[in-house]
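chain below, 244 aa
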Amino acid sequence: MDVRIALVTGASRGIGRACAHALAKAGYKVVLAARTLDQLEETAQLTRAAGAESFVVEMDLSSSDSITAGIAKAAKEFSRIDILINNAGVTKDGLAVRMKKADWESVLNTNLSGAFYAIQQVLPGMMRERWGRIVNISSVVGEKGNPGQANYVASKAGLIGLTKSLAQEVGSRNITVNAVAPGFIGTEMTQGLSEDLKQRMISETPLRRMGSPEDIAAAVKFLVSEEAGFITGHVLDVNGGIYM
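prediction:
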């Protein structure tokens, strides 16, 4: 069988970069998508050093046109996309009572609508091949909520609903759709938090540590494997026990 081809959105850093690297080491070809090409090239160097064929594509998940163009370019390069990792996400936190319409819409557009449009672009090819793996990166807050993040939480909870609905739609074509819900992970997104807040989050986590992007990548690598072929519609919590 040909080498499987995986597309990772938000691959320029953090969890996306770790996922791309893990898949490269596991022998997949990888398509790296994000808005920032210079950082994507750094990820590409990592994946190529791991022995993988890699292709970089500029993609803005807040624009359906950008998604369509980027995935068409990737499919032309590698002939098809077998695996989609919907990881790209943004935050624009604020209390709901004062949240600007633009901040609500930009987070929902990128995190939820962008993931959906990416899925729409890859599904026809997966259905033709009668094989596919879709993994949506949600969040623990999509399961338990979080004050000051109504837009982000709604987008991540929406991804869980999308995952379960799609799993039922496309299961008969041997396409699995799952979600990974990270807990408190050490990335650029969490670096800006105060030391007090970080310590509080760690103290609330039974494993008493922050997770790493590699912890999430390991879960993703499992869910796209042949071994996970009978798992679909599932939300895999990788959160150190902060939510059970």
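The chain has a mean pLDDT of 96. The longest strand covers residues 175-182.
thats it, cya
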